[in-house]
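Subject: Sanity check before I submit

Could someone independently write out the structure tokens for this chain? I want to compare against mine line by line before I put it in a report. The sequence has 377 residues.
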Amino acid sequence: MTQSKTAVSGVHSFDEWSALREVVVGRAEHYTEHDVDASWLLFYFENVAPVLNGGSANRRLVPVPPQLVDELNEDIAGLADALASCGVKVLRPAAPGKDVDIRSPHWDARATPPLNVRDQSIILGHTIVETAPHVRARLFENDLLKPIFYRYYSSGSNWLSMPRPALGAGSLDDAYFRRQGIDVSRATDAETAQSIDGLGLEMVFDGAQCMRLGRDVLVNVANRNHELALRWLRDNFPQLRFHVLDAMADNHIDSIVVPLRPGLMLLRSARYLPYLPQAMQSWEAIYPPPMSEPEPDYSDFGFIIPTASRYIDINVLSIDENTVVVNSHYPELIAVLEKRGFTVVPVRHRHRRLFGGGFHCFTLDTVRDGGCEDYLS
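---
Independent answer below. Compare away.
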């Protein structure tokens, strides 16, 4: 499939499915360790808890085997090539030149490269929004996207940033877990950061907690950190309607619900329907079939931490209303989508649970054809 290109000035992206023209694809050079501090452990808790309960995670920096990083970079290059072959302009963040240690007055961390670019930014119409990271190691990640953002800004885009969180001790709310009776002390007891007197819970939020539907935006809100961010979004974008998904997940939702086009969505299971706006509950849902391929055997690599959900392969990226990028290692989902008339672009993603994201996470769609349409009234 090849798309005709249109002249574009600045960002223009209102939804998840209209024809994709320009996209940022992340990169993973120097993804040499996971910095397993308290902010990281709490953010990934649902996925890493089984490993933590095994008692193996007793190091602050957990190495990532170089072979797996090399294979990840091969797969990301395959994603970029596949998108370019479909006529999409592919942009890449600046490459981190080395392993980087970062420090604030309250904590230090090993920086994460700009791989999951969906997390620290969201495009809302003609505005770039930099969000407020949960994980300390990611606080300066968007510096490597700034060359791209400045080019869009020079072309007329708006550019806003949520207040930068200090992320001192006590900044993060574990209410989502407490309400479910889940003990997260394995994460909170690892805290080494300093607190800031009188600060309390901060605005903390990722772009992947949102799904855009034209004029309407779904927003997962699971705790006080997210509530503060929702208020900021409503204050700064009064023309949009933000619909609260009340603790649909602890944070990201793009491995739970992915709108494929108006009236049709990919949904992890029917139990998530009640979280959606009433008008969206009548949309047709495609439920992902079981995956027959077992997870890769990493026993030869020593201690491996699976940061992403086991449902990460529904984290697909739409090129248009009829074309979807899907992991080639999930043929069952490819078959279901093809039976529904979709053109599937299969792209390899071998280590999908190890690096916190899938194709939707690895990309930031900066230009799509769709506008501020009303799909829910």
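---
OP: Matches mine. For the report I'm noting this point. The mean pLDDT is 94.
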